[in-house]
Amino acid sequence: MADTAFATVAEHSAHVHDVKPGFWHTYVFSTDHKTIGKQYLCIGLIWAVVGGLLAYVMRWQLAWPDTAVPGWGEVGPEVYNMMVTMHGTIMVFFVAMPILLGAYGNFLIPLMIGARDMAFPRLNMLSVWVFAFASLVLFLSFFVPGGAASAGWTGYPPLSAKVEYTGVNWGMNLWILALALEFASFLMGGVNYLTTAITLRVPGMTFFRLPLVVWQQLTAATLFLLSVGPLIAGAVMLLLDRTIGTHFYLPDLGGDPLLWQHLFWFFGHPEVYVILLPALGFVLEVLPVFSRKPIFSYRGIIYSTIAAGGLSFVVWAHHMFVSGMDPRLAMPFSITTILISVPFAFIVFAMIATLWRGSIRFDTPMLFALGFLAMFIVGGLTGIFNGSAPADIYISDTYFVVAHFHYTLFSSVVFGGFAGFYFWFSKMFGRLLNETLGKVHFWLTLVCFNLTFFPMHNIGLAGMGRRIANPLQYEFLVPHQWVNVLVTVGAILLLAAQIPLVLNIAWSLLAGRAAPANPWEANTLEWTAPSPPPHLNWETLPVVYRGPYEYSVPEVREEWLPQDQALAAPSR
Amino acid sequence: MTAWPEGGVPMLNWMRWLPENVSTYGGDIDAVISLIYYVTLVWFFLTLGTLAAFLILYRRREGRRAAYVTGDRLKESAWILVPLLIVLGLDFWLDLRGAPVWAKVKSQVPPAALSIQVTAKQFNWEILYAGPDGVFGTSDDLQRENELHVPVNKVVRVVLKSKDVIHSFFLPNLRLKQDVVPGRTIEAWFEATQPGQYELPCAELCGFGHSGMKGWLYVHPPEEYEKWVREQWRSS
Amino acid sequence: MATRAEAQAIPGILPGKVGVWWFLASEVMLFGGLIASYVVFRLGSAGWSTESAHLSVPIAAVNTLVLLTSSLTMVQAFAAVEGGDQPRLRMHLGLTILLGLTFLGIKAFEYTFEIRAGFTPGAGIFWSFYYTMTGLHALHVLAGIVVNTLLFVRAGRGTRNWHQVELAGLYWHLVDIVWIFLFPLLYLT
């Protein structure tokens, strides 16, 4: 049969090592999905530091306005707006996307489906290089005359469409360019992920035996592929308005500022699920492993994910209730928004049900997964406030919204992200992380996160607006300034709480114990490869006999039953 | 000086953080927020409580093995499908309760005692009063920066325009917010129930002067308002 | 060293084709976003047809024929591949490239004519859309010409790149279909 011959050829070539790849080929110009994943991780983590430092400066300014920020200096309103803008842009597009999708999508998908690499390894390499180039463009935008973009990560025109409204010229143009490049990079990645999962699964790995994280990555990739087009169109239009004098968003010659908002949020809402779903996937992997139980309602979670993904395309105008759009649009979008809470409620309930009658081990990945669950519940609940059009009349553009999206985004990017990070670190790098440092990191992060972001609900309900540089300019906010101080203290502590992580990584990579292939006793295919897997992943490709969550199977003595382990008993 | 809202756990007692409401529809909006707050608070305790209980009850113990439960059987999945249906029902109920409030505030402007034109620009509110003749564009129009004077207990129509970028007309104490878009004329309305001085911040990033861009709404009792009108138009 | 992983679970589904279809889906959303914006604007404003009357329908009609024919030659190129007919493949690829270049040339002439008459991108919202939509489309045509040229060169070296011709054909047909939408929307009032 053709594919057996194919398989033999590939098997054979896996043994061929005629030319040992040098440093550049192994670490820089690599087509290996695992290396590319690590490259995305590296760049994303560097940007996370930048985004975090921007938050530090902003928070200092908010707590003690017009005092010099230690390590930075005084922050004027133009610089503040630039920081607010770049903080959001960096965190969404240059931290969350590369780490959750770029790093773990790349690393996990081939390993979890039994493939040797992605379907298009060279396209994969191109995608990370385009992303690196996008990073360079964004970085340079800080240093051009006029500074970096300052119209918010949402970039609403006319503010963003005419230089004289912000004083920012090339910074804004480079911002648009950097985003366009980032979109191109993830379009390439998305095509790769979907094609790989569709065409390269090993025999036995049916769609309904795929680990849930793969389903989440695929759904995220699909959402991105189908939603980014209109924003690319919109970004092209914005760039043209800024450079060659078109009038898409400028009303003086027939343009409409609201067009941007529709195009932006048509993408923007699916985008937040693009970021959420992979992290949700990490948690969905971690929970069964550390409860020693199957995930509750595997298919239900898949259908809920797809439903949520589909619904995400018809909720976008909940970001625009008070924008001036036709008021008759508000209730339909309120309804769709409230509906989207249903599939997510299902997934949350299923995750809690997974714990029921489990045998729970509280290792660091599990702690972060549980942290995700708790924080996501809060974030999801405050979404109900924001999705109600009349409530939103008041809370739109206040810190209540900031609290909501930090609870949802942070829970996914940070708690979910770290769940995955700690879980797969040993597989990625071949060393074990220190458990004690991990637990310290978790508890500090959990406490400081809530200290930082919970009070934002309160100050938002008090009416504090977003993107203001000095709350003391408003008399009604002066009595509440202590909340801003509290938040800033929390933020500084939250940043400091990441130090145990840095120490842990350094210690582990320099002096940590070598990791076995399967330290967590988990079922999915990546744990059958060595830690870290070699190029082309396995000597012999695995064959799959069952789904990924066969834990504590009654007929089996061990608590775990790998997907590739043949058994006399019939599989599910 | 701090203001610690009284009652309950201060940070969890969200409704106490809303500023004083002096608007006829403010109570309706607060009621929607309050309803959502209490519904979500119940879910918060239910879900986090269940989560905490499971973590305690089912922590790993010697000699006890996890149960092999996949959730595929209806008996098992009913435990999440039923709460899910409750969630769905509550969601619809919240929307049902909210729809009339939205319609009241945003769908149309009721018959107004007076109209005021508010033109936003970087970084001020230009308030245009029609004057005694009640018509804009005539010689008795009067423009003020950042001062919005209205009588108490009267419906005021606000005609919103922008000279440059998008701003947002936000009256926290009246629970009114409306983005102001260049190239469009958008109408909003409010009726203040209590005299006083209320801040009018801009609620949409509009440039480096966004922070601090604010006006003041002055709600006058009837005699005081008449006096203000006489003073303003005395010279014209 | 294997640079391509082997297909296993579903033999016969080629990764390249799956990949291209997903890519085309994203392109549909890109042009769809532009076209939807255009339609919403158009429905909401008067005086649109007076602007579009300044465009030359005959020239665009010719261009439409050019592009349609190029899709035909692209299909012929793929048929040649299936028949293993290398010279015929080259000829039809070459024709497709020439027709694509003709399209771009006519477009360039059109732009020059219109800009000289004062209809620049900044002349009004119709013109902003016209130049952006046709310009983005033209960039896609150019990209397709580049790809086809690469295949043309490879066909000359005798490599059997039938699969790539099919994929390039799929892309080229999309570019054609987008134009089929743009032509009536922009030119025919």
Helix tally of chain C equals 6
CATH architecture of chain C: Up-down Bundle
CATH architecture of the largest domain in chain B: Sandwich
Query: Count of DSSP E strands of chain B?
Result: 10
Order of helices and strands of chain C: HHHHHH
**CATH fourth-tier homologous superfamily of chain C:** Cytochrome c oxidase, subunit III, four-helix bundle
Descriptive report:
The complex is a heterotrimer of chains A (572), B (236) and C (189). With 572 residues, chain A is an all-alpha fold. Chain A has a single domain, classed as Cytochrome C Oxidase, Chain A (Up-down Bundle). Helices cover 64% and strands 0% of the residues of chain A. In chain A, 65% of the residues are buried. Chain C has one domain (18-187): Cytochrome c oxidase, subunit III, four-helix bundle (Four Helix Bundle (Hemerythrin (Met), subunit A), Up-down Bundle), CATH 1.20.120. Chain C has six helices and no strands. Residues 1-7 of chain C have low confidence and may be disordered.
Summarize the helices and strands and which ones pair or pack:
The complex is a heterotrimer of chains A (572), B (236) and C (189).
Chain A: H1 2-15, H2 23-28, H3 33-63, H4 77-113, H5 121-140, H6 163-166, H7 170-199, H8 212-243, H9 257-291, H10 298-311, H11 330-355, H12 364-387, H13 389-395, H14 399-429, H15 435-461, H16 481-496, H17 499-511
Helix pairs in contact in A: 3-4, 3-5, 3-16, 4-7, 4-8, 4-9, 4-14, 5-7, 7-8, 8-9, 8-10, 9-12, 9-14, 10-11, 11-12, 12-14, 12-15, 14-15, 15-16, 15-17
Chain B: H1 26-57, H2 74-107, E1 114-121, E2 124-129, E3 142-145, E4 147-151, E5 155-162, E6 167-171, E7 176-180, E8 186-191, E9 196-201, E10 214-220, H3 222-234
Parallel strand pairs in B: 1-5, 4-10
Antiparallel strand pairs in B: 1-2, 2-3, 5-8, 6-7, 9-10
Helix pairs in contact in B: 1-2
Chain C: H1 15-44, H2 48-52, H3 57-82, H4 86-116, H5 125-156, H6 162-187
Helix pairs in contact in C: 1-5, 1-6, 3-4, 3-6, 4-5, 5-6
